[in-house]
Design goal:
- By secondary structure, the protein is an alpha+beta fold.
- It is 37% helix and 30% strand.
- Helix 2 runs antiparallel to helix 3.
């Protein structure tokens, strides 16, 4: 049964049957049912079954909307991969070095990751419920330049389905103008997992947003923010931000490290001020 189901699913990948939405839906539904049956009827599913189930779930969600182009599917996959890699970095608790700790408990850690470079991890507690942070960081993403002076502008270039967007971000100069203007083109993916929300992204190419004159095109590595209610205090939120950036250009590593760690500290402070001055989205600050 499972082999036949895989053949059905694989057949839907051929170009001449991509337009047959019913076939693709049938394939995804059948493979999901078969995997669930095997998982419930025997021992814990193997790693490959979990992987197929995740991919089947992703494809199933895609089929709820009009069919995507090959490029749009590539963006969706890139966002998913960025999220998995970023979460994998956060799950590994070994090797983190303390960069700074503020009086309010905000902490920045760092670690060198092979094939990625130095990454920074911000750990803070915000005295607002998770839904409020979600509103500000996801639903009002384009308004970030209004309250975060490190960001001049964020624009959503394209929205793909419910969870994926392509964005262009123009960053302000930093370190007393030693770090000139940078911009970023990124694919961003947002997922809810129970009471946890994950916002992830990484650099991508977007033909309609070529490199701008006088601005260095920097790149986000796998990066993410994890939001979850604070244990024992659901009206407060634990925020973890993994930051990985290649600023490009000729910059000493000491300046880069200082700028990135300070950017995280500043972000937490500016976010708190924003939430205090505008406690609810309906207030239309």
């Amino acid at each position: 049964m499972l082999l036949a189901t895989f053949k059905l699913c694989a057949g839907s990948s051929y170009r001449h049957v991509r337009s047959m939405k019913g076939l693709r839906q049938q394939a995804v539904r059948a493979i999901g049912q078969e995997l669930n049956r095997r998982a419930l009827g025997g021992p814990a599913p193997a790693a490959w079954i979990n992987q197929v189930r995740r991919r089947g779930s992703l494809l199933g969600s895609q089929l709820e909307d009009p069919l995507y182009s090959d490029q749009e599917l590539a963006y969706i996959q890139q966002g998913e991969e960025a999220m998995q890699r970023a979460l994998g970095i956060l799950r590994d608790q070994e090797g983190w070095k303390k960069e700074s700790r503020q009086a309010n408990g905000d902490e920045v850690l760092s670690k060198v990751i092979p094939d990625v470079g130095k990454v920074f991890r911000l750990e803070v507690v915000v005295d607002q419920p998770m839904e409020r942070l979600y509103e500000e960081l996801v639903e009002r993403m384009e308004a970030m330049g209004e309250w975060n002076p490190n960001v001049k502008e964020i624009k959503v270039l394209q929205k793909i389905g419910k969870d994926t967007v392509i964005t262009h971000e123009l960053a302000a100069e930093a370190a007393g103008n030693l770090v000139g203007p940078r911009d970023f083109v990124s694919v961003r993916c947002t997922k809810r997992r129970g009471s946890m929300c994950v916002l992830a992204g990484m650099a991508t190419r977007y033909e309609e947003m070529p490199q701008q004159k006088g601005v260095i095109r920097a790149e986000h590595g796998p990066t993410c923010m994890v939001l979850r209610p604070l244990a024992g205090s659901p009206s407060r939120t634990k925020l973890t931000w993994l930051l990985s950036i290649d600023l490009k250009g000729w910059l000493p590593k000491t300046i880069i490290n200082q700028v990135l760690s300070q950017t995280q500290v500043d972000f937490a402070n500016h976010l708190r001020k924003r939430l205090e001055s505008c406690p609810a989205l309906e207030a239309r600050c």
